[in-house]
Amino acid sequence: MSDLVTSLLAGSRRALARMLTQVENATPEAQQALEKLFPHTGNAWIIGVTGAPGTGKSSLVNALAKAYRAQGKTVGIVAVDPTSPFSGGAILGDRIRMVELSGDAGVFIRSMATRGSLGGVARATRDVVRVMDAAGFDIILVETVGAGQSEVDIVRTAHTTVVVEAPGLGDDVQAIKAGILEIADVLVVNKADRPGANQTVRALRAMLELGHPAAREQFARHHGRLIEIEVQNNHQDESLWIPPVLQTTATNNTGISELVLAIESHRQFVIESGTITALQKQYLELELYERLQQALMQRFLQTMPKTALADMINHIEARQLDPQRAVNQLLATLDQPSLNIQANES
Ligand SMILES: Nc1nc2c(ncn2[C@@H]2O[C@H](COP(=O)(O)OP(=O)(O)OP(=O)(O)O)[C@@H](O)[C@H]2O)c(=O)[nH]1
Ligand SMILES: [Mg+2]
């Protein structure tokens, strides 16, 4: 494994691929390797691309990767949950990417199937991104399907989060989850070649206005040609980033250079405002807590006979024991290693 680390750091793509498999399977060797790689991380700019199924995330990631390659930057791509039950579009998107980007040593693509718990996916994604970071990629694009809490967890690795919408989804305000809007640094209405793109842009801006007083002021002043103005003006107040709303047609590369510019603007903002330090610290703190939580849970469950927990659940189900009392009794076994389930006094 140590050889693998050395080869990976020297730029071997084979070593990278093998390492990622180890990491995804969470082998003990992977843990050792991650420890060795950690000091080599923290250099890549990590871009999360999330949004509803079929909005064109993979196509955008593909277009972005090409744009960054044209700038001479190396690009790692992580696609999480590539088996969207809704569209099957990801697999197609992945295939298109493979064809267009394969053979370019400056691009590395990894698709991760969703499996296991949500926490497990978030953790595996974080580790995969970290390995790519250590392998020296300038840009890492992380695609996740925005269909629940998972994307919010996964974008907690990203420095810039791009939220993708498409016409027809966006006009229905309900379709845009408030949570997803909160994590957006850049909003993209893709499939701008389709009817309704302008309405979707308007709907997103209206939602941004609701939650963003400073945005309201800017929108009021610059109604009309908002796209260019916002991207240029977002340094007016150094402490505040207003997510720009862009239109793209990923399939014919329209709006991609503007998107690259918006991401670059955000990167500069995050660095110049000093937000980057706080962001990184916050992510690492969160990671530490998550890992501790998982480790403690695992360790605790190891000490507990499965039947004891099943008994406890039966008691709770029968309303003989309330859940918090159950937890207190479980915790008591840490000091006194036999579990006595005591039902509520009635
Ligand atoms: N008309 C049009 N079609 C697009 C555009 N971008 C993507 N598509 C098409 O939309 C479909 C889904 O695109 P994907 O890039 O796979 O979308 P995705 O968001 O990655 O999909 P999932 O990963 O399944 O959620 C494909 O058939 C694309 O060719 C666009 O800008 N305009
Ligand atoms: Mg996809």
Task: Explain how this protein is built.
It is built from 15 helices and 7 strands. The protein has 346 residues and is of the alpha/beta class. Helix 8 (178-182) links the parallel strand 5 and strand 6 (186-189). The protein has a 7-stranded parallel β-sheet with strand order 3-2-4-1-5-6-7, sandwiched between helices. The protein is 53% helix and 11% strand. The protein has 3 domains: 37-273, Rossmann fold; 274-303; 306-346, no CATH class. The chain is globular, with a radius of gyration of 23 Å. Magnesium ion binds next to helix 4 and helix 5.
List keywords for this structure.
single chain; 346 residues; alpha/beta; Rossmann fold; 3 domains; 7-stranded parallel sheet; 15 helices; 7 strands; globular; binds guanosine-5'-triphosphate; binds magnesium ion
CATH topology of the largest domain: Rossmann fold
Averaged pLDDT, please? 82
Total of DSSP H or I helical runs spanning 4+ residues: 15
| The level-1 CATH class of the largest domain | Alpha Beta
- Radius of gyration over C-alpha positions, nearest whole angstrom: 23 Å
Shape: globular
Side-by-side strand order of the widest sheet: 3-2-4-1-5-6-7
What molecules are bound to this protein?
guanosine-5'-triphosphate, magnesium ion
Q: In the CATH classification, which architecture of the largest domain applies?
A: 3-Layer(aba) Sandwich
Contiguous uncertain segments of 5+ residues: 84-90, 220-236
> Can you say what the CATH homologous superfamily of the largest domain is?
P-loop containing nucleotide triphosphate hydrolases
Task: Name the structural class.
Answer: alpha/beta
* SSE order: HHHEHEHEHEHEHEHHHEHHHH
Tally of distinct domains:
3
Which percent bin holds the helix content? 40-55%
Would you count the extended β strands for me? 7
How far apart lie the N and C ends?
59 Å
* Major sheet characteristics: 7 strands, parallel
Beta-strand percent range: 5-15%
